[in-house]
């Protein structure tokens, strides 16, 4: 089963960006996140949309 949510660090690694850039994309609304307890996780669907240039 493929992961639906990934950590900020995993998202940064997948997109070859730094953590600061990931947070900037989150604030711009280009990456969607979900809160699980104290952790903020990025949806893999939003990572794929961004990588495909659909956002």
What's the arrangement of secondary structure elements?
Elements: E1 5-6, H1 8-15, H2 19-27, E2 33-36, E3 39-43, H3 44-52
Antiparallel strand pairs: 1-3, 2-3
Helix pairs in contact: 1-2
Strand order of the largest sheet: 1-3-2
Shape: globular
* Rg from alpha-carbon coordinates: 10 Å
Spell the H/E element sequence. Answer: EHHEEH
What value does the average pLDDT take?
95
Helix content, binned percent: 40-55%
What structural class results from the helix and strand content?
alpha+beta
- Give a short account of the largest sheet: 3 strands, antiparallel
Beta-strand segment tally = 3
Uncertain parts: none
Q: Assembly state here? A: single chain
SS summary, helix count: 3
Protein name: Helix-turn-helix domain-containing protein
Organism: Aurantiacibacter gilvus
Domain Helix-turn-helix: 6-51
InterPro entries: HTH_17, SinI_DNA-bd
Protein described:
This protein is an alpha+beta fold. Helix content is 47%, strand content 20%. A three-stranded antiparallel sheet has the order 1-3-2. The mean pLDDT is 95. This is Helix-turn-helix domain-containing protein. It holds the Pfam family HTH_17.
